[in-house]
């Protein structure tokens, strides 16, 4: 073997050793800093921006009153009409520039203000993530609203996601609940994580955020459950998380509490006809299905399937044929409510997925 070949092999071996050392160091750092939330954690409830330093003038609620609630996966302000995403078959990792994220957040805030719900469940809200240009999205949204307290539960927190190229990088994201009512207690309840080591280091640690609102002149509570269930698993994660959700809701309903769970289930409800949104090809992401009959009779699944609640991110919506037979849509967002709540109306707001890959759903109901 001549000197040139030996030199090349030496350089190559050194490069391989350098990369291997880097991978091991990164793995060690991610292991040490892994987000490991407790099974149950207390969550702070923060007064709105305009009430800083003073107690928020909250609304009260009693038997017979009505409540308006909105759920919206905000797509971390980066998944609007021009976005695609590699996990859904698209090409992009960083799907929007900073200006677009800011425009999307402004539009989301304006829509919440216009709809004026009493409670808002939001999913995919970033606090400090590379993908949304390190904007604190919760502050950005709440600073433009009045009359709400807010709470936040992290479900995706990692120093660095090392894939694909360019990498996702740092992520700090979670669920946010806004309420015009007094929230006396808020808890983060961990859900089963279907991913093993080392994949779990850079994956979501899903949770339920449970907020409790007192009912005037009653020992009952309004129990609000914000959720975002598993998306990119083999189905076992969704099933395990849904089973834990079922147990919690049935337990609270059995106490006589008013129970509302809402969010992004990443599953269709079996009690609705979703044939208007068939899977158009095998390459797009496919949702699971919740067997609603498996839940007790005291719980009802509610959504509005006249308008899709989610669109595929395999390609941008803008500039492509958006007809149902050419573009993939889903109905995976909605609510579960207890029998002591009468649903007066439910509507998926058709916003054309301009500022998020999800449309918000608004439900009005009365406490019986």
Quick structural summary:
20% of the residues lie in helices and 29% in strands. By secondary structure, it is an alpha+beta fold. The strands form four sheets. It has a seven-stranded mixed beta sheet, covered by helices on one side. A six-stranded mixed beta sheet has the order 4-5-3-2-17-16.
Account of the 3D structure:
This protein is 20% helix and 29% strand. The chain is an alpha+beta fold and 368 residues long. The strands form four sheets. A seven-stranded mixed β-sheet has the order 1-6-7-8-9-15-12, covered by helices on one side. A six-stranded mixed β-sheet has the order 4-5-3-2-17-16. Strand 8, helix 4 (236-254) and strand 9 form a beta-alpha-beta unit.
What are the key terms here?
4 helices, globular, 368 residues, alpha+beta, 7-stranded mixed β-sheet, 6-stranded mixed β-sheet
